Amino acid sequence: MEVTQNLEAQGEIISHLRRGNRSRGRVHVSDLVLCLRKSYLGQVHKVPPTEEEMLFWLVGRGYHAVLEDYKHPSEVALVRDDLAGTPDQVVLVNGQVVPVEIKSTRQSVNKNILENFWWLITLKAYCYLCSTTLGRLIVLNIVGDWKDITPRLRVFDFRFTPEEVQENWDWLLARKQLYLSSLEKQTLPPLEKTPAWMCKSCVVADYCKEVP
Ligand code: SF4
Fold first, then answer.
1. Pocket of ligand 1 (CB under 6 A)
2. What is the CATH number of domain 30-210?
3. What pLDDT digit, counting tens, does each position of 172-199 carry?
């Protein structure tokens, strides 16, 4: 038997994934939740995602596709104040439309869910877009607790206060303003405190380091 690793076929698959990961036109909640500088640099320099990013995206997409099929997918972006957001699903709970965010992660299942503050920012934004204070988060820990690598699936319901939802939206609108004005003036947004994992694999890190 002869085995050959087919690099050409691998490259075709990655290119195909990149084509399916095109950016959106309107500013989206996900552009604003974490590092504004990364969103800005990605937009200005049109740097394609790394192969690693594409493969994580692929794992997430597969899981999303199955779960979105199970309930009501929400492929349509909801828009308020010219800011778009696309909940992965919307479900009805006691007659109320509830947005659902689906996440897959290599984090240990033992990590406190609240530490993923960016997930909560997104969920609160989707609550605002759906005019509700109830949001649902579905989390797949793909490597369990790292000792036992059996995947674990958990579902969390968050009941926010109206003030939390409104404050979160106002904060995002302020960031949208900063983002758009940076793009217009071609000036880099200020450096922010960003999770270490994000900088570690950041595709625009070289551009970012040039300016403090
Ligand atoms: S290296 Fe870190 S701070 Fe700089 S753009 Fe990337 S994620 Fe943001």
1. 35, 37-38, 41, 191, 194, 198-199, 202, 204-205, 208
2. 3.90.320.10
3. 999 999 999 999 999 999 988 888 888 8
